[in-house]
User: What shape does this take?
Amino acid sequence: MAQGYLSVILHAHLPYIRPARRHAGDAEIWFYERALECYLPLIRVLDHLQRDGVRTRLTLSLSPTLIALMRDEIIRERLIAHVNRMVELSARELNRTALLPALREPAGTYHLRLLHLQNALTQRCGGELLGAFREMEARGQVELITGPASHAFLPGMLAMQPQAARCQIRLGLDAFESAFGHRPGGFWLPECAYTPELDEILGTEGVGYIVVDGRALERASTPAFHGIHAPVYCPSGVAAFGRDRDAACLPGCNAYGHPTDPLFRDNRRDIADDLPLDYLRPYLPDPNTRIPTGARYHRIGTTEDGSDVYQRKAALNRAAEHAEGFMRDRMHRAQNLAWKMDRPPLFVCAYDMHVFGQRWFEGTEYLDYLLRKVHFDQNVLETVTPGEYLHRHRCNQMTTPAVSSWADEGYFDQWVGPDTAWVYQHLSRAVRVMRELTESVSEQDGGDEGKDIGQDQEAQDASPEGLGHPEANDNDLQTRALRAAARQLVLAQSGDWVTLLQNPQHAEYARTRLHLHLSNFARLASQIRARQIKSGDIEALERDWPIFGEICPDAYR
Amino acid sequence: MKDPLANLLYPGEPTTATELTLLPVSPRRVLAAWPVLKGNGNGASGAGGNGHDPEHEAPRGDAKGLCLRIREVRDTELGGEVPGQQWSFDLADGQTGCLVELERPGLTVRAELVAPPGTNGAVPLARSRRVRLPSPEPVTGEGPIRWMIFERNGLA
Assistant: This one.
């Protein structure tokens, strides 16, 4: 039996992006970048681990909006086109760098990598990333979990109306089930933001476990007996796993997962910034807009002779050293803790998945080395998923974790600050309107019960505006309008907007999206209240935002 | 920062302040938000401060003189509660939210929106639920440790 458990949890999320009509917009590119730099390399790593007989237990959290993007046919087609274009560009780069000895090697390495990833996407995944994750789950290599529907900041939702939080959680679980055919065992809390009032909702929605910041256990109502090295049960029975903050800072990277080791690739220097637009144009989705190509040939630091050209082999060797160091450190801690505990201590290493490969180019290889080393080079640590842990250790302490998040200070300042508080006010107002709408529609339906058609006709004739009561199929239209309104509200509640508002580069996009969803919502609310629903408007919104088909406005009542 | 969506109206929104939301942000900070008030129909203004910051003032409205009161709540041994210290913040016309910094961390508080004297008297327009701000200190209690076995649904 192992003396310690290592539970690696990778969380991936992107806001839902409506595919642009003609070509991929800026936000849509985020998905293609992440697919190419993170999801596909991770799938390759896990396939290779499986092929080589490495026992791996990894937890992957895929947000419902990301799942929807992976299922979207337009996005899938455009992803393949994007990868093909990048492969063509990298091939052209071989010609351009043929006479530049310093850059020839990194350009060749990058081209080869892209060919592998292209093959992984088209041959291995058949163009569908979600299928690969499904397969990895079926073979027991990963445990898949999800989070709130649109990655809403749940303590904020809860403060507005408990129904808002419940709707986010229920819809997230439903969307996951629709994609994978089963409910997830675990539930990812965006930003690891937890407040004890969430517990009852999580419990009644059937959530098995959550991941909280380690400080939530350290400051729990009764301090966690094993600290962060064992989960606790919240009063509802939901298990809370405490994130190990020491493990959260990856070796060779800063606290946000950006590499700092001088041997690692410098992600800030992309050929898209240096080369003429005419050269890049054939490979850009929008011929007039530069986007990062991913072709980056420089490292963070310089060598003694002043060269800053990226050397792949040296970088990978360093990543392997970091993996070794990380593992040895956890082994040492596990051995120190093991005699104090009635079970092997657990280290919950939860990260943003996009650190691996996207922010930190060598990150996926680091993960590969770490999992191989844990399997082959020692017998102290064993990888487990939280679900697997709970099967092995059913008896756990019961306590109430404290208010917390994974922010530096451990609270919510990062998401509810002077510059972003207005967002919650709008969402709070919209949620109240949504609740009133669902209640009033329900009362109308209830009030209509028992009436016959003649009574309806009389009412229609007596109507001063001549609008009268809806026709028979208007109930269906009303339901669709309510669902469309709820969908717009859920999209407006995405926690991304608050985060992006604080980034000058993306603040305008966040404001535009918030305005779009809230004004769509307000327009629908107006139509529903006036009982003058425009079917064309509903159809356009259903067509443009094909997500959350499972949405049930009744959750707001 | 001003609310860029200040002119957005929500049809059917209650026009009286019937609900006041408190969101704990950190051990000493709490966000208070309330629906648009009757008469200041131009919508929300930005949150922040105690309403004196001209940047946060809404363009028009007639809810001048409103006051946000944050009241500390202490539990009694008999299970009731008694009011403790109280802090008042003047609100700008049209303001629908406020990020409040309290003097001490980890308090349990309620909030009230109070109309200016002579309009609705001293009757609060809205009251929030009771909210406990997180304590920055680790719990030092020596309460009994309870161990449980749960069979959760949905576990892999």
Residues 421-448 of chain A form the longest helix (28 residues). Confidence is low (pLDDT under 50) at residues 449-472 of chain A. Chain A has 21 helices and ten strands. Chain A touches chain B through 69 residues (CB under 8 Å).
